[in-house]
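Intended use. Records like the one below are meant for learning the mapping from a protein sequence to its folded structure. Do not use them to infer anything beyond what is encoded.
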Amino acid sequence: MAWRSLLSRSTITSARSFQTSSPAASLFSSPPLSAPRLPQLASSFSSLSRPLGALGALQSLVPAQSLKLPQQALHMPVPLTACHQLSQAASCKMMRRQLTTVADKVADKRNIRDYKRRLLAAKYELRRNLYKTLWQDPNLPYELREKYRHKLSRLPRNSSFTRVRNRCIYSGRPRSVYKLFRSSRIVFRSLASEGALMGVKKASW
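Structure written out for the chain above:
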């Protein structure tokens, strides 16, 4: 009961000093409406029998209202393992999307390069065949044959059909390509399994 008398004496002393203060301070004598008064908070103080807190202050001087936990703390926190798995799955999905985008870009680049070579080979096809025939003709003189051989060597390198490969239009793969479907064996089997090819059944190729 001694601490209650000390608390009441300190309250009375502070009230008297507040009343005898200067008139400028009396303008702020009335507390705001939202702030609770001291007698109302007196019942909310805890006892002095509690130990010291982490900062060395008495926990009894902390109002009980401030000890309430927020609503967010009442929910069950997500475990760290679940957070790690979610972040790992998101990163894997992002990496897979990036790799797919890169693979598509590479396939498109290869197909575009092959298409340009086909156009160039079609443009110089007759000229190349003519120069090649005249160069390999044994009935012509040596100087004339060397002349056409030199002309043949001056043609663009990509104008030869040996530089053109039948590539898959989906993946750009140059080997094991079915000419009828213009797709590689891997893409062909995946499309056949999905039923995306007309006249081709699953496990029937």
